[in-house]
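Reply to dn_fold:

You asked what the input looked like. This is it:
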Amino acid sequence: MSNGPFGPGGGTPSVHLRDPHEAFYRLIGLMSGIGISIRANPEYQPGAKLDVNASVPYEIRSAGTLIRLESRLPGLLGSLGSMSITADCRLCEQVTHYSIKGSPYRTDTIAPKTPAVAQAQRLYSDALELFFAPPPTSTAPANPGSSSRNTQWAVRAQFMLSGNGENLYFPAPSVKDPAQYSSIYRASDFNMTGRPFWADEQTHKAPN
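and this is what came back:
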């Protein structure tokens, strides 16, 4: 233990962990269990009609995509303050270019400049579910040398604990990463994944 990341023998990369408050924050980060899943909405009804007597709201029944953000943080830290989630979900366009022989040679991903607006949401003690309209239909290449288009969701999420006059942001950086939260991490970034203080659908993919 003394030579581990939280021990006195951790070396230079662990200097920041000699602060007990920072060490506690990083330890909670390891146990946070943050996960993002993107899947078809099991309650989706194609052609759903507005029905005041329906047990499931129309906004959920007419939503084709369900994005779920989950974590163990409320159970770990609920007594220390209030938890909030910032979610930025964008339906990106993927354009695949094909050669004259019909082989794909490049795929460009284009993220919208503004977040998608959820039709509905459900908040649980350990998760937030967001419901979105069905994505557009994909298009195949019309002929050799042209391109195909489809869509793919990209998600950035930040969990914030507010209490005792301070805010803690999750996902925390890796144990040996000395990064500290600052204004440069205030906004989401869709040009990279694995960024400290922001979960993404690739780095934090929830288990099935």
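Helices lie at 20-30, 58-61, 73-77.
Hope that clears it up.
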